[in-house]
């Protein structure tokens, strides 16, 4: 039996190691400025700081953004498109971008694209959940309410949800092809 060995405490960070961590994180993950900043601050709390001056995380994140290693606009577009492909509506996409710390000016293209694809995203959600035209039979009132709630949680408005849930099995719901959601 081997004695319990404890891992040695990690060495405190200095400016070089902090920059290496930031570059590694930005290279490995699609990230936003806010997420990178949160990651670096967490690492500083965990490991401590060995530098003479206080660490300037904001300047480091800003420099990586200037070099385009971190691009909030591109991150917002990528994240919004990925969520729309999974069937999420504009409200859910906006909430995800809020959580990632994306500023209003950086989310314009992502929100415009998701609003234009709202009906298609609702179609994807209905197909995935077997709702409306993708159901085997019409549902009871209680199940209808649950299905509408699923659409609402996914970020779609009530009118869109009701049209999809009330559609007869095998028939596409009327209207909406022009992307009139929200």
Count structural domains: 3
Give the number of DSSP strands: 0
Which parts are unreliable, with pLDDT below 50 for 5 consecutive residues or more?
Answer: 178-182
What is the succession of H and E elements?
HHHHHHHHH
Computed over alpha carbons, the radius of gyration is 23 Å
Helix content: 55-70%
Q: Please, how many helices?
A: 9
The gross shape turns out to be elongated
* Percent of residues in β-strands: under 5%
Alpha-carbon distance between the two ends: 65 Å
Give average pLDDT, whole number: 90
Biggest β-sheet description: none
Helix/strand structural class: mainly alpha
Explained architecture:
This protein is an all-alpha fold. It folds into three domains: 45 residues; 45 residues; 49 residues. Helix content is 58%, strand content 0%. It is built from nine helices and no strands. Helix 1 crosses helix 2 and helix 2 runs antiparallel to helix 3. The longest helix has 15 residues. The C terminus is likely disordered.
């Amino acid at each position: 039996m081997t004695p319990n060995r404890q891992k040695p405490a990690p060495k405190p960070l200095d400016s070089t190691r902090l920059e290496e961590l930031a570059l590694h994180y930005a290279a490995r993950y699609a990230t936003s400025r806010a997420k990178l900043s949160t990651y670096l601050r967490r690492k500083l709390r965990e490991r401590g700081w060995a530098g003479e001056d206080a660490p300037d995380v904001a300047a480091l994140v800003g420099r990586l953004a200037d070099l385009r290693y971190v691009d909030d606009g591109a991150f917002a577009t990528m994240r919004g498109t990925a969520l729309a492909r999974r069937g999420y509506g504009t409200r859910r996409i906006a909430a995800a971008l809020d959580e990632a710390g994306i500023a209003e000016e950086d989310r314009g293209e992502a929100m415009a694209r998701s609003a234009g694809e709202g009906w298609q995203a609702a179609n994807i959600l209905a197909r995935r959940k077997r709702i409306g035209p993708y159901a085997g039979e019409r549902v009871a009132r209680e199940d209808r309410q649950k299905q509408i709630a699923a659409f609402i949680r996914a970020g779609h408005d009530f009118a869109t949800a009701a049209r999809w849930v009330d559609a007869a099995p095998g028939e596409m719901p009327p209207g909406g092809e022009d992307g009139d959601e929200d």
